[in-house]
Design a protein that fits this description.
Layout (H helix, E strand, L loop, with lengths): L2 H13 L2 H8 L3 H15 L4 E2 L6 E2 L1 H26 L6 E7 L6 H13 L3 E7 L2 H9 L5 E6 L6 E15 L10 E3 L7 E5 L4 H12 L5 E6 L2 H9 L5 E4 H4 L7 E6 L4 E9 L6 H14 L7
Length: 298
Amino acid sequence: MDIRHLKYFIEVSRFQSFTKAAEHLFITQPTISKMIKNLETDLGAELFDRSHKQLVLTDAGRLILGQAETINRAFDSLQTELNDLMGLQKGHIRIGLPPIMDADRFIKILGEFHQLYPNITFQLQENGTKKIEEDIRGDLLDVGITVLPTNAEEFHSFSFMREDLKVVVPPAHPLASRKQVRMEELEREQLILFNKDFALNDRITDACREAGFLPKVVSESTQWDFIGKMIASRLGISILPHSVSRLLQEDLCTIKVVKPMLEWDLAIIWRKHSYVSFATKEWLRFTQERLMMETPST
């Protein structure tokens, strides 16, 4: 048995198909079938029930899968640590970004880092902050941007942007001429929110409850530009970070929220009690230094 047996077993379990796993791994179906059969022979147990249309793990298969994933992660960590010894000549950093943020400054810093370390590669994955935290826990991401507070027992973090949330309305809306608005005044409004994968959804819902009502949500989205178009079409109003509201191309009005005052605090997080590659450590150091050099206006 070698590490390939376990990697192939993990992929077959994932796709529930020899054919699909083989296509994903760029090998032939007979090759992967033979490898799994050899693994079953070595272990003395069948790992898959082949009597169904899709492969189903046996009890032994489920047991082995957990151990195989642990061994595979350890092997990948070993490869990463060996790359560290090469002095940042190689490396790969997986970063989670919420599509709700203005990423221009962040991407600029990423470009500056790439100029210093051109052989380090990046995987940028857009998702809501809840999914980003979940993927860091599951070792699918190395670092991510989320909204504070987060679980301090699980994650290291540093904050780099705190700003107001603004009510965004079309020019013909009765609130359009206002400089500020209380949350309780939004009780009858139709709200367009980011979906429940985003911590901002919880923040706004909680603020509505504190003001004594449940929000009337007419639509949810994952894209701030689409929310702007819906507001302009008078489908409803929204509450967005100030930096995001400034990106909207439509002719819209923004209003400060008071009682309670709504803010959000963006931070970069990474997992505690887990190996962090040398490339990721250097990226964190460099990015924190650059982000702290300037404070965005609100």
